[in-house]
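Ex. 9. Protein: ATP-grasp domain-containing protein.
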Amino acid sequence: MDTLTVLFPADEAGAAPIAEFADDFKAADLFPVFEPLLFDLNRAINGCELVLYGTRRDQHAPMMYRGPRLQAEQYRKLYQLVEGRHWRMVSDHYAYKFNHYHWNAPYGHVVNEPYLAITETTIGGASQYAINRKFPEGFALKDLDAQSPRFLGRVSTPIDGQWYRDIVAQRGHVRFGEYAANLIAQEWVNLKRYAGATNEWRMRYFDGQVVDVLPNSGQPESCPRPPEEMIAKYRSSSAYFTLDIVELEDGSWLYSGLEDGQVCPKALHQSYEDYWRSLAQAVEGAPHLPEWVWCLTANVVDEHEVGDDKHVERGTKQFRPGAKVYVAHEWHCTTKDNGGTVVVIGKPRNQWRLIQMYMLRNRLTNFRLKKVYDRRALEMMTRFDRGGLAIGNSPSTSRWWGNTDEDKEAILEAADYYNHDDWAHRQRL
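Predicted structure tokens for ATP-grasp domain-containing protein:
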């Protein structure tokens, strides 16, 4: 990609980043591929308003957040505000939530990977009795908001009620205003040590590329790296994430943490400049937005009958009659007499933004082949080719078309089928 806009939370005056990310901001500004931009985080997640302190140089560049770790719901609000401006975040809210539960790593990032994670649970998210049952041999207390190392020490079980109440109360002291629960109880495992230090590494990935693999526990330089095959197999289409991995006493390896790269601290002893230099190289190597793609295109029917009383409606709730929509590969059959559902991108009534949604097949007509040049639509269509992680069952996880001859032929066949199937002429004339 040509440019990546990086959103940094601003101080109260809106003139500088908050203090703990000032060094990040300065280092990111050293590399032309990044466009650091200040914004009001409090108004974004509490007031549902995206306030930027500055003007974007490239209105079509994707964006990433760099700031304190947010709860999943708070990141979703920020993501929707950015997407509402027709800008693309490198990690959507599904991926952000997914990347904060490290046991997802085998399923989200590696196909058929055996379960290699260290068991953990959120302090405050489980009762003291559940924690005692889950960790009969004790657990390691882990602070997700801390710079490396994150482990605060070993806690023996059973824990008593006063210790639990005290530690839960500490959740109110997380940095930057109680935005996320930060304390984790993780199963105690015996780690291999070199000169008294454990052998922990942080692996960073962006858009299927390995950004860097760095020591993360102050271990001697002679310590072994994680196996190369283990590093390589966690490469995926996920936009930006980090994976922490540790060496056990018997020489085997387990991963101990998965986190969205936008909020994960840099590795121990890594300089801010090196952090952003490595990321800049990965960003420059990421796929660029295509100039155009082929797409199956259709129009919303003028009128159609709905309900048991067969009353007539013009267009649909979202789209005006005759509105042009782009239609994806995906088609869902149904037992109802409506032709199933397809995924479309289009401009809703009285708005200029684009939305992506499921739509009944019998609400569409005039299927045809078109070239799409609209950069807003291209951003939505090609998100998985440029760092999106397909999670869950939503319209945003659909695959779209490309600009090859094979795509063109497939669209022509699809258009011919849709224009002559059982639902092609059921609109009210």
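Check your answer against this statement. DSSP finds twelve helices and 21 strands in the chain.
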